[in-house]
Amino acid sequence: MLSSELLSNYPPEVQIPAYAVSDVVAASGRTLVVLDDDPTGTQSVADLPVLTGWEVEDFRWALAQHAPAIYVLTNSRSLDPGHVGQCNREVVTNALAAAGSAPLGFVSRSDSTLRGHYPLEPNIIAEVLEEVSGDHIDGVVIVPAFPEAGRVTIGGVHYVRGDGDVLTPVAETEFAQDATFGFRNSELAKYVEEKSAGQFPASEVIALDLNTVRGGTGRIADALVPARDSTPIVVDIVTENDLRALALGLDEAERRGQKLLYRVGPPFVRARIGQEPRPPLTAAEAYAGTLPASSGGLVVVGSHVGLTTRQLHRLTENHPLSRIVEIQVENLLKDEKTAAAELDTAADTVVAGLAEGDVVVHTSRVLVKAGDPAESLRIARTVSAAVVDVVQRTLARKPPRFVIAKGGITSSDVARHGLQIRHAMVRGPMLPGVVSLWEPVGGPAKGIPYVVFPGNVGNDAGLLDVVRTLSSHPAPTGTL
Predict the structure, then answer these.
(1) Could you point out which of 164, 218, 232, 414 has its C-alpha 20 to 30 Å from the C-alpha of 51?
(2) Residues 6 or more apart from 184 whose CB is under 8 A from it?
(3) Is domain 283-471 given the CATH code 3.40.980.20 in the classification?
(4) What is the pLDDT, as a whole number, of residue 480?
(5) Is the peptide bond before 119 cis (omega within 30 degrees of 0)?
(6) What's the CA angle centered on 408, arms 164 and 148, to 5 degrees?
(7) Where are the alpha helices (H) located in 180-335, listed in sequence order?
(8) Is 216 exposed, middle or buried (0-12, 13-18, 19+ CB in 10 A)?
(9) Residue 140 CB coordination number (10 Å)
């Protein structure tokens, strides 16, 4: 269905400047702690600190940046439920300890196509907040919309935009067939009931449609009054102005005394803190303050969604590459000797290739699936560990000029383990509203721009465009 048809019965969006939100955020003095279940959530924001570790000292560093939000890369989408609960508990506990009396808010950032550990993660956050600070959560605000990437919610139904402005209910897309996080319902209230196994019946979910979202701050806050005991609250969102309107309504509800958590897609935080969308970074901005190496850039591709495969094909067909290295997943899953030989060959080829130009290393494009979600996660972790191993060896022998990691689990593990990034600053997007560039703070990757590229965003030329931008900046002669 066309979006124009779905929107015909709703009022137009209300124009709201970003500063209208940032002013109320500044007045509250509150910092949002964003538990990001993979690093792609940073793609919609700029100039914010990001952590891949969450000890109390990590939070003290992040809070000292005096930013309105802090991202914490939990990578929980790649974990089993037991470890998900543990890491969420640690993050919230340590953030509260580091903040002391300073006010914090908590955001559970997840996928705009509804994949992830819901309702486990907001449930754990709510439990810890009650145990540690005595705060009893009234409502969990669920906002998966990501307008720049074509994910919108209208009439309580979540859609993915395709060609010609055609909207497809998300449960009818490939994302709903995810081996670990598959689902059947596009209507968010029913999705909540499905994923919570009836803990939250659809009939008890509060739904804010566009009439409410576009009806003013007071109307939004009034609609949240019935929320009690972590009531799920699903929200229609089509534009950035809708997100800002919601932000003002949520702030009003919280000023009235309600305690809220957020389960959201990437752009929510930008709107909630009143940050303007940043234009894509230029090559000069991406390398600002660094001395680019003369070696080539490294592009690491782990995602298997169809869009990633098309983007990879467009890159390899249209950009001069010194090497294209394919890691055979089947070999990784055999015996240790076969897996070790596969990684030795891959690392040697990447290092040799970087001396001549840009290199792509990708996993084989045939997705190896298992019969159950736990085994699928195990395979995904095995493959990601192999990619990390190649990146670690490369960094030690031939530091690349830039690194791009494609896919959620891939980009998380490359950042935390491959490049050993613990603290970084998110500098901004490489494409309009999507694909973030991190500046590592300290560690072996300092001075190497790191690009987090989700598997399911951008058009077919998106990866090519980012590589061309980062390759276009001249490297000084005589550098490594």
Answers:
(1) 232
(2) 171, 176, 194
(3) yes
(4) 37
(5) yes
(6) 30
(7) 188-195, 210-213, 217-223, 240-255, 267-272, 283-286, 306-318, 329-332
(8) middle
(9) 25
Whole-number Å distance between alpha carbons of 31 and 45: 15
Does pLDDT of 296 surpass 60?
A: yes
**Closest by CA position to 53, among listed 415, 387, 411, 395:** 415
**Residues pairing with 73 in the sheet:** 36
Which amino acid is located at 414 in the chain?
Answer: V
Separation between Cα atoms, residue 318 and residue 321, nearest integer Å? 9
Give pLDDT tens digits for 307-327.
Answer: 888 999 999 999 999 999 999
Domain 3-272 is found in CATH 3.40.50.20: no
Note the pTM of the prediction, 2 decimals: 0.90
Are 411 and 452 contacting, i.e. CB atoms less than 8 angstroms apart?
yes
Partners of 166 in beta bridges: 2
Please tell me whether residue 286 adopts helix, strand or coil conformation.
Answer: helix
Tell me the mean pLDDT in the region 464-473. 94
* Domain ranges (residues) in the chain: 3-272, 283-471
pLDDT digits (tens, 9 = 90+) for 182-220: 999 999 999 999 999 999 999 999 999 999 999 999 999
Instruction: Find out whether 45 and 275 touch, Cβ atoms under 8 Å.
Output: yes
Instruction: Reduce the DSSP state of residue 420 to 3 states and report it.
Output: coil
- Beta strands 104-109 and 139-143 are unpaired
Closest CA to 107 of 40, 51, 33, 49: 33
